[in-house]
Amino acid sequence: MAKSASMSRQEMLAEIERLRAELALCRERGSGEAACGEAMEMEIKQLREARENAGVISVIVENSPAVIFRRLADDTHRLVYISENLSQWGYSAADFLSGRKGFDDLLHPEDRKRVIDEIEQCRLEAVEEYTQEYRIITAAGEVRWVSDETSVVTDEAGRRIYNQGVLVDVTVSRRAREALEASEFKFRRTIESAAEGYLLLGADLTIREVNDAYCRMLGYEREDLLGKRPHDFATLEYQRFLESNRERLRKEKGRRFEGSMVHRDGHVVPVLINANTLRDEDGGFLGHVAFVADLTEQKKALNLAAEVQKGLLPRKAPRIPGLDVAGRSVPSELTGGDYFDYFEETDPAGQALSVAVGDISGHGVDAALLMTTARGFLRMRAGQPGSPGQIVTEMNRHLAADLYGSGRFMTLFFLRIEAGGARAQWVRAGHDPALIYCPVHDTFTALGADAGLPLGVLRETSYGEESGDILPGQIIAIGTDGIWEARNPEGGMFGKERFKTVLRERAGDSAREIVDAVIEAVREHTGGAKLEDDVTLVVIKYGGTP
User: Fold this and answer.
1) Residue 239 in 3-state DSSP?
2) Are the C-beta atoms of 65 and 85 separated by less than 8 Å?
3) What is the CA radius of gyration of the chain?
4) Where are the alpha helices (DSSP H) in 85-219?
5) 85, 326, 360, 497: least buried by Cβ within 10 Å?
6) Is the pTM of this model over 0.85?
7) Residue closest to 71 by CA, chosen among 109, 100, 97, 108
8) Gap between the Cα atoms of 357 and 355, Å rounded
9) pLDDT for 414-439, tens place per residue?
């Protein structure tokens, strides 16, 4: 009865009727044929059970979206069975079983040759199970995609007699896949045609994907970069930055920083990196993505601007008996908004020195331009008679007109010190107070009880000066907040206590050495990272040798 498993329902009914007729004939021949009758009754019972099972299966099949078929394994591909749920595509199973329609009629004309060739190839290679995906045309002329999972039925001699399988409509998933592929294609085309470099990094920071722009930027072929790390092509300074800030950068959701890479021919390429970590809906890691912009041209323009701005700062310290003076400004970008200047004057009472340290809100090119404007006016006004309070008041009126409505302002600390008389006058315009360190008593004093408003906020603001005596050996330090607000990779500020510690420890050095020591301490604190704000410091040692 094993053959009953491959019978159709109609074939089972015909077989049952044949066996019933044979059973009746056995009974007419007498009891000697009882064994034959019993065997036939058992076979009929088995067939009945198979018919009932086939009925259940038929109900399941006809109510499922999967179409079951069997076709001859020859060149005709004639269907010998196809489930009634073929009606979902507007066809009748009877049309195919009668021969009025064939398997080829279902196939989309553009897919027909491919499908038939694949079937023939599977036959030649004796493949017993295979899957195809192709288009069919419904009775209404609609195009549908189906997945065809076919297996081969052979006879006792091993000859192929049928191909049977299941057709499932996969149009929705196929179109979704095509839409996704189209979206991915557009994304890849966008990435490949982008002027910016693109990198996809693994968890170990090796390069998995890279676009042409990045290859051109460094002068390498794609194969030269895949499997390597960006670190391998970085300058030594940039390598140190990446190593010292690795954990901080990993934790940040979005990373934006500058670096410098080494081109294949050896020249340095300044770059701006915008990086992020990709994760799936469950938070699983997908990769690190980085977009890299070549800043070579921008750096050339900024370098020129930086050279111009650098030329506006004092080229050398004033040489006044009894005063050792040094100043330095380090912009966070190539250009900055910090400012310092010296103004020497000689009157009947002796020589005097005025020092200005200012900070334009923000930094970069726009802040540098405003600093240049402020410098020009202050230099002009400081050369005329007037007290420090009068000079700063008039400077405020000038800047208020230029800064009105911009949201910008300038803080300033203006100090005038008489070299011979040890008398100092100062004005705070929103700036941090200067510090006086006395090595004899190991004490710090802040200059400027009244903070005053920054310049450019209110045009009619009037500024008055404070005054006091300076003792031999004392050190005056006037800085900008970029010093004590500089942060390390963990986010900790440099702070004024560290600033004071450096002043205390280096009090016996020259003013120049003290300035350099403070700036080096800030650099070490930040781990060599790009400064977040401009850093400026002027140090005056009273009683020192210039």
Assistant:
1) helix
2) yes
3) 44
4) 93-97, 103-106, 109-124, 171-193, 212-218
5) 497
6) no
7) 97
8) 7
9) 999 987 767 899 999 999 999 999 99
